[in-house]
Q: What sequence folds into this?
């Protein structure tokens, strides 16, 4: 667990990005903001000097983690939870800015272990025009670029959702078409997954099926079995996989009852 | 119904005639119903019946308790979330208040053999004493039969069944999913609220919540 910045020095009013980095041993995982059927999300509380503001945590797209028929949403490996920071308008060059985060997280393999830590990073403050001369090391800059590409993007394409018996069917052709041209990815969609941002929208454990129908690509989800009514909307992250990688889109669409 | 399945049905009908076809359809409908029933408990519906052996070797059936309110509490004494509720005294207090009120409290261990939280009957009884717990019974479910019947996902995972045998609450014990910094005493306890509502004949205000905790260790 460490705190990493995308700049070697900061300046008054110049935004930068901080990352809480978790390097998980093989076989262990942590959880997304909605952990799914088990687990608990990582919780980050920023401890920043007066006048600094933090944007909400940017969660990278999660993975489906299945174990014993229970499906959670989370991460394995090298996890970067980032947030954009804005220093105050007045920040004297020559001083330092002590930045910290109190983090608690649950890490699970066969068993779960709750962890907590405070991570700190002190950055020098320079004049605004000097920040350009103090970028992060190339390896760090690359890692932040990779992390940013994993954060879901807002998208304008409307999603058509229909219901059939126990299924919720999401037509994703319009999303595919709208994003194929702009996404840093190309090729046909080879996989798709929906991650609900809250409980009760879908049966989390049920398989999600990508189908190619007469009307194009569809993602078939299963509605929750234990409630009488269909959830009024789908809200979360839709991930499309192409040959060049996975891109997530934040989506929100009404579900017809 | 998928196009492929409809095609197979039509071929079947042509070969065996429409009476046989109707029988096939009836069986398929029954299978579909059975699958839905297997998908887990449904709020407002009768809670799925089960029979199990408790930590004293006694056979316990859900139907034994018709006329009484029943709490099902999935547990794993090695799960940090369960430990938090016992170390704070929260779980014992809830069990004591509920059972003093005539509620049947069944703690269920669905950890498979060799998985975390799996206990022998003697270990289960020892844990009840050492933690000052007050369940009516601890049910041992090493095959995960009851766990799968109820789709129990986490420890803790809580279910409240009213005196008529209807499932009225399923989900988390409270609204404090964080594994650290949470304060069970200050929490909004959904089980306590469901029991209070059921006792006064009111509908449960929050009948379904997202349970949180360790996954139930069903094994593979």
A:
């Amino acid at each position: 667990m460490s705190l990493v910045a995308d700049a070697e020095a900061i300046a008054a009013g110049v935004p930068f990005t901080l990352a809480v980095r978790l390097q998980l041993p093989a076989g262990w995982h942590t959880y997304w903001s909605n952990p799914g059927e088990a687990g608990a999300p990582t919780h980050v509380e920023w401890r920043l000097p007066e006048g600094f503001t933090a944007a909400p945590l940017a969660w990278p797209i999660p993975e489906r983690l299945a174990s014993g028929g229970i499906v959670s949403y989370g991460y394995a490996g090298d996890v970067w939870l980032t947030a954009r920071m804005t220093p105050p308008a007045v920040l004297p060059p020559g001083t330092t800015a002590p930045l910290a985060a109190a983090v608690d997280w649950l890490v699970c393999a066969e068993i779960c272990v709750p962890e907590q830590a405070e991570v700190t990073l002190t950055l020098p403050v320079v004049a605004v025009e000097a920040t350009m001369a103090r970028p992060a090391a190339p390896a760090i800059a690359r890692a932040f670029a990779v992390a940013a590409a994993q954060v879901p993007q807002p998208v304008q394409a409307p999603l058509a959702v229909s219901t059939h018996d126990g299924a919720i069917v999401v037509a994703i052709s319009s999303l595919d078409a709208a994003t194929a041209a702009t996404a840093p990815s190309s090729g046909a969609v080879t996989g798709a997954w929906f991650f609900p941002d809250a409980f009760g929208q879908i049966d989390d454990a049920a398989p999600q099926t990508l189908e190619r129908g007469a009307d194009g690509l569809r993602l078939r989800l299963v509605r929750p079995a234990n409630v009488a009514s269909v959830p009024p909307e789908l809200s979360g992250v839709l991930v499309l996989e192409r040959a060049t990688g996975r891109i997530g889109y934040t989506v929100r669409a009404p579900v017809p009852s | 119904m998928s196009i492929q399945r409809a095609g197979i049905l039509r071929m079947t009908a042509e070969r065996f005639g429409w009476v046989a076809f109707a029988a096939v359809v009836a069986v398929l409908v029954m299978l579909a119903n059975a699958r839905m029933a297997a998908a887990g408990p449904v709020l407002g519906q009768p809670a799925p019946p089960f029979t199990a052996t408790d930590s004293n070797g006694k056979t316990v059936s859900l139907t034994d308790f018709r006329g009484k309110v029943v709490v099902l509490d999935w547990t794993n004494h090695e799960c940090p979330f369960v430990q938090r509720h016992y170390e704070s005294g929260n779980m014992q207090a809830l069990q004591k208040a509920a059972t003093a009120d005539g509620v049947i409290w069944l703690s269920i261990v669905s950890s498979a053999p060799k998985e975390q939280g799996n206990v022998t009957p003697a270990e289960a009884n020892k844990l009840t004493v050492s933690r000052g717990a007050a369940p009516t019974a601890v049910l041992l479910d090493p095959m995960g039969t009851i766990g799968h019947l109820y789709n129990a996902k986490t420890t803790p995972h809580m279910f409240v069944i009213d005196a008529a045998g209807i499932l009225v609450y399923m989900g988390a014990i409270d609204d404090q999913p964080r594994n650290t910094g949470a304060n069970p005493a200050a929490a909004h306890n959904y089980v306590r609220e469901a029991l209070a509502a059921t006792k006064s004949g009111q509908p449960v205000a929050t009948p379904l919540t997202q349970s949180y905790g360790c996954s139930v260790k069903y094994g593979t």
Summary: Chain A has a mean pLDDT of 92. The CA atoms of residues 190 and 242 of chain A lie 6 Å apart. Chain A has two domains: 2-149, 153-254.
